[in-house]
User: Fold this.
Amino acid sequence: MPIENDRPGFAAPAYDLPAFEQMVADTIYAGKLHYTPITDSTNTDALNAGRTDAPDGSVYFADEQLLGRGRGNHGWHSPAGDGLYVSVLLRPQWAARRMPLLPLAAGLAAAAAVSAAAGVAIDLRWPNDLLIGQRKLGGILVEAKTEGDSISFAVVGVGINVHQTEFDSGLSTAGTSLALETNRPVSRQALLIEFLLRLAEEAQALLDPTAASKIPAKLEAASTWVHGRRVEVHGPQACTGVTEGLDAHGFLTVRTAGGLVAVQTGGIREATAARDAADIS
Assistant:
């Protein structure tokens, strides 16, 4: 039976788990779907499973997260029935040096899934944000356990706003949802299936050095942020400059007053006039 969810406003169609299982029967996710109505964090669930014998392709998803997480220890507001909250456990057979490409591959998969399920075009803000115009639709959190150049497991977590109609005015980037952008309900199940199928394809590409080498260029083609955008970099490599693309590792190159910086970690925002003035003075 479908799982009931009777929230007001935009209807949140229930997950139909038997139908879901049939849809992924011929994929790496077959027999590995783990649904719970409420959890602290699907990424935490997947990480805990990764430390045991949970197999490659295990999927952990929920209607609500109490302690949803984004990158940099930021919280991810996850109200019941309003969003897609899912984490996928992978046991990659490729070297750990390719790990920086996994968030980019996941972003490409999520953008393609949104386009297929909702007919909405996504702008990818390196390294992990899904944007529609200047508004944030979702984000990606990749966590992994590595040993030398081997990966014990990786977790790809995705949060996408589907049915939300209100957002905190204090967000650093204004939020949006598929309901607000399309003015109609969007099936979370259809969105999740699309994401899983595309993630499998993108992760498979990382096995092939030639295919993996094309991921930065694919991200560049899907993003208005990685070329010619004046940005502020937040994190250990904080700086301000103009983006000049991605290098072979998937790191963002930024032309600053002091030279070219290959940003390996952190986030970016549009540079403000105040910050530009401070750089000049």
Residues 227-280 form a domain with the SH3 type barrels. fold (CATH 2.30.30.100).
